[in-house]
């Protein structure tokens, strides 16, 4: 199983398909990486698609401390550590609810 390790040591499970500009698919509160199966099949024809399970959603790690689930932790722990991120920084984030918002903020911070 492929994992990427966040800066606090939490392992996040991901799956990827395709090549090219990466698209990071972030699931919503009641979802998981498999929520994006149809999108990965379609977009992987032209893009490198990455779908992951957020912390607390097995097979990703499930930290026991409440602080490990903050908005800031979600934001700071994922986007810059995407598996083999594009060297040009041309990463696209897709999702719904709070997850993609957190990562867009982080990607914007990294691109300054």
Write out the CATH superfamily name. Alpha/Beta hydrolase fold, catalytic domain
Total helix count? 3
- What is the overall pLDDT average? 76
What fold name stands as the CATH topology?
Rossmann fold
N-to-C order of helices and strands: EEEHEHEH
The CATH C-level name is Alpha Beta
Structural class: alpha/beta
Radius of gyration equals 13 Å
Count of structural domains: 1
Report, as a whole number of angstroms, the end-to-end distance.
33 Å
Strand content: 15-25%
Strand order of the largest sheet: 1-2-4-3-5
Q: Say how many strands there are.
A: 5
Helix content: 25-40%
**Known CATH architecture:** 3-Layer(aba) Sandwich
Shape: elongated
Outline the low-pLDDT stretches: 104-112
Main sheet, how many strands, which sense, barrel?
5 strands, mixed
Compact overview of the structure:
The protein has helices spanning 37-43, 71-78, 98-110; strands at 3-5, 11-17, 22-26, 48-52, 92-95. The protein is an alpha/beta fold and 112 residues long.
């Amino acid at each position: 199983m492929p994992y990427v390790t966040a800066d606090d040591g939490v392992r996040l499970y991901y799956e990827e398909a395709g090549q090219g500009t990466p698209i990071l698919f972030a699931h919503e509160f009641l979802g998981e990486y498999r929520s994006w199966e149809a999108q990965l099949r379609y977009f992987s024809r032209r893009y490198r698609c990455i779908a992951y399970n957020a912390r607390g959603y097995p097979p990703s790690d499930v930290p026991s401390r409440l602080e490990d689930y903050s908005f800031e932790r979600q934001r700071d722990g994922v986007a810059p550590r995407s598996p083999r991120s594009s060297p040009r920084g041309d990463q696209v984030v897709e999702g719904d609810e709070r997850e993609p918002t957190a990562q867009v903020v982080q990607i914007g911070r990294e691109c300054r």
